[in-house]
Amino acid sequence: MGRRDGHTHPGQYTRAVLRIYDTMSRSLREFVPIEAGTVSIYVCGATVQSPPHVGHIRSGLAFDIVRRWLIHSGYEVTFLRNVTDIEDKVLAKSAEAGVPWWAWAGRNEAAFRAGYDILGCLPPDLEPRATGHVTQMVELMQRLVDSGHAYASDGDVYYDVKTFAEYGRLSGQRLDAMQPAGDTEGEHRKRDPRDFALWKAAKPGEPRWPTPWGPGRPGWHLECSAMASTYLGPHFDIHGGGIDLVFPHHENEIAQSVGAGDRFANYWMHNAWVTAAGEKMSKSLGNGLLVSEVIKRWRPVEVRYYLISAHYRSMIEYSETALGDAAAAYRRVETFVDKAAPLVDGWTGSVATAFADAMDDDFGVPAALGVLHETVRAGNTALAASDKEALTQAFGQVARMTSILGIWPPDWQDRGRSDLAAVVDSLVGLALEQRTAARERKDFAAADKVRDQLAAAGVLVEDTPSGPRWTLRDG
Ligand SMILES: [Zn+2]
After folding, report:
1. Ligand 1 center from residue 83 Cα (angstroms)
2. Which of 115, 116, 312, 424 is placed for a possible disulfide with 52 were both Cys, Cβ 3.0 to 4.6 Å?
3. How far away, in angstroms, is 455 Cα from ligand 1 center?
């Protein structure tokens, strides 16, 4: 099935077209998937050199919202977010700390996963690690060397940027205006200072893998090209990451993958930074903005609400005051849900048309939250007037909208009880979303398969007027 343009759901609305801001074309483009009904997404994840601060996790949250809205819209979404576990900065930081590089990377990877999880990001379908895909990187390099785009020089391998006519298109730069890549000490081994390293020859004490051009380790850019195509194939829908990755990282990914003959990504999405005192957040600003610290001052759902409440392409100037305002706004939603829940029975969820329109307009969360708060106000009016019908309608809409944004209050109240239960709940919730989407597109075989797979894992699903409920089979 395709995007259900013009198709009216029972009790819902005529769907608008989803438009996405594409960095490559510098414009809003109608989203058309490569294969009808499915969306494949690759997001550049963490370089695991340090534990995450809120700026790092913003990217995870931005693409979590993208994914949730696509799932809600009926797509079957495949979502990959990689782990860069071998890179200059990982080696430098681990050496400074006197810890083996792999242990340093492993600890920080765990800290990132905990950070994404505690702020309610659905787990990716896969988190490929760079070190697990060196074979595919060497294969990709071989294709680039064979096609004349890359050359070996004293154990390093470089990409010859002059061989790729499109170089600079993503970032809007002309090759003749570019600075030297400055990505290696081997500048004298390059044919052109703007050439970038695909592979770096082994140095004493550093990890190394064999290649036809000598032992060494991969460059960061090569890692992502190889991991994306290993799983998503030569052509996939959306490539995402932070705005700071446009150049050189994503420019170089395109040079590698398209240079090797792949079509690569159809849409390029980039989220803006979190800044503190006007600067890109970095470790020099201290540890107070580590996710592990911020959640000591604020509840995780409040931090999530704050970080998603700005449009993903707008900078967030971090401040405790702004976070406090966001937390107060979230509590207004929570208070309404707490008061209304005991008075409402048999509600059905639907989203307000204006909410869907906002989300279809390049994932416009600020406008969508405006609709949410209007609905909460209408619900509070209904509460005061003891108008049960209006209350039930508002409650259902609030439930649906907050679920889509990952901020449905009861989910977060349950989270405190058991970390494991929260993880299971989020995984089963994801499977149930896919099942609902399959049913909506009348693919009952796929819907039944999800239910059967859950049953095989001991999760029993029961359909109730308020949506599917699940329980664990006893014994
Ligand atoms: Zn990447």
Report:
1. 9
2. 115
3. 37
Cβ–Cβ < 8 Å for 139, 234 = no
CA–centroid distance, residue 240 to ligand 1 (Å): 9
* Cβ contact 305:54 at 8 Å: no
Ligand 1 centroid – CA 277 distance (Å): 27
Burial code (b: 16+ CB inside 10 Å, e: under 16) for 204-237 equals eeebebebebeebbbbbbbbbbbbbbbbbeeebb
Residue of 357, 275, 368 lying closest to 322 (CA atoms): 275
Tokens 């994932």 locate to 363
The sign of the CA dihedral 204, 253, 54, 280 is positive
d(CA 196, CA 187): 9
Ligand 1 centroid to Cα of residue 228, in Å, is 9
Helix (H, G, I), strand (E, B) or coil at 260: coil
**Measured in angstroms, how far is the CA atom of residue 246 from the centroid of ligand 1?**
10
Residue type present at position 133: H
Is the pLDDT confidence value at 10 over 50? no
- In this structure, are residues 473 and 457 in contact, taking their beta carbons and an 8 Å threshold? no
Centroid of ligand 1 to alpha carbon of 322 (angstroms): 31
Tell me, in angstroms, the distance from the centre of ligand 1 to residue 350's CA: 36
- For the chain, give the mean pLDDT: 91
Tokens of 375: 């609905």
**Percent of the chain with pLDDT strictly greater than 70:** 92
Q: Are 339 and 391 in contact (CB under 8 A)?
A: no
Write out pLDDT tens, residues 105-115.
999 999 999 99
